[in-house]
Design a protein that fits this description.
The protein is α/β, with parallel strands linked by helices and about 300 residues long. The protein has 2 domains: about 140 residues, Rossmann fold; about 120 residues, Dihydrodipicolinate Reductase, domain 2, CATH 3.30.360.10. The chain is built from 11 helices and 12 strands. A 6-stranded parallel beta sheet has the order 3-2-1-4-5-6, with helices on both faces. Strands 8-9-10-7-11-12 form a 6-stranded mixed beta sheet. Helix 1 crosses helix 10 and helix 9 packs across helix 11. The longest helix is centred in the last third of the chain and has 20 residues. The termini are far apart.
Length: about 300
């Protein structure tokens, strides 16, 4: 381990853990991947050996070896283990959504606050340089009236994430919803109300939001449409015209590196507040829960 490097433990060994979390943590100058734990010991050993880390025999064993913990597990599991990690004084890198339900998200956000640890959500698009530049330009211009987000793909029809049981069960609202809602919220002001929510065939979600300051926005989401390549678009409009943001292909590692830059800086300076901290995760979980309730009721506000 290099001097001053954060020792990070990784919980989870799925595709995202293997392709983004582990190599990024191992390669970043401010972090070292110290330990890996998974409910599948062989997978943990294999991933740990690839990056010269230790395969921990238990979560507690992992906690004892590290300064921070990165999670790449289903939301309900993250909510449970994240609380334990925070209570053990570990800084956290948390996936979206924060938890499987609103109560779990609240417990985890409260545990982070009580422990005084740093926690960042892997809202991966927010850390991309093009997103930061786009949001900075929007904030400078002002005067925006509305916007919309579209995230349409066939990710759950086949491929590496099609076998993910939590994604299959929860669908687009929980998986890509946090990304879309976060960007609309960051661009137009905090989402204050879900005005309408409808879930149609192919898990196709249509949502309408009210934002602080009077703007409104829409979101259209599905991971079960045969669309190649995936459509990821955010647009806003107002007195300064129409501005769009797309997703740069293959930018996940670059964005995760930027996340780690922020994470290491927060810990070094003793800062816990960040635009993508655990409270942000709780806010997004509240939006998800309200949308789910409205759609289940079969009526709008």
């Amino acid at each position: 381990m290099g001097q001053g490097q954060l020792r990070v433990g990784l919980v989870g060994t799925g595709p995202w853990a293997r392709t983004v979390h582990a190599p990024s943590l191992a390669d970043h100058p401010g972090t070292t991947l110290s330990a890996v734990w998974s409910r599948r010991p062989e997978a943990a050993r294999e991933l740990a050996e690839t990056h010269c880390a230790t395969a921990a025999g238990s979560v507690e064993e992992l906690f004892a070896q590290v300064d921070a913990v990165a999670f790449a597990v289903p939301p309900a599991v993250q909510a449970e283990l994240g609380v334990r990690a925070a209570e053990a004084g570990k800084h956290l890198i948390l996936e979206k959504p924060l938890a499987g339900d609103l109560a779990g998200a609240r417990r985890l956000a409260d545990a982070v606050d009580a422990a005084g640890v740093a926690a960042l959500m892997v809202l991966i698009l927010r850390y991309a340089e093009q997103t930061r530049d786009w949001l900075a330009g929007i904030a400078e211009a002002g005067g925006w009236r509305g916007g919309g987000a579209r995230w349409l793909s066939g990710a759950l029809l086949g491929g590496q994430y099609a076998g993910s049981s939590w994604r299959t069960d929860s669908g687009a609202l929980y998986d890509v919803g946090p990304h879309a809602f976060d960007l609309l919220d960051a661009a137009l002001g905090p989402i204050t109300e879900v005005l309408a929510a409808h879930r149609g065939p192919d898990d196709l979600w249509q949502l309408l939001f009210a934002h602080e300051g009077g703007a409104t926005s829409t979101a259209t989401l599905s991971l079960r449409l045969p669309i190649q390549p995936t459509v990821v678009e955010v647009a806003i409009y107002g007195e300064h015209g129409y501005r769009t943001l797309g997703r740069k292909a293959g930018a996940a590692r670059e964005s995760y590196t930027a996340l780690l830059d922020d994470f290491a800086a927060m810990i070094a300076s003793g800062t816990t507040a960040h635009p993508c901290d655990a409270r942000r995760g709780l806010h997004l979980q509240t939006v998800i829960e309200r949308a789910r309730e409205l759609a289940a009721d079969g009526h709008h506000r």
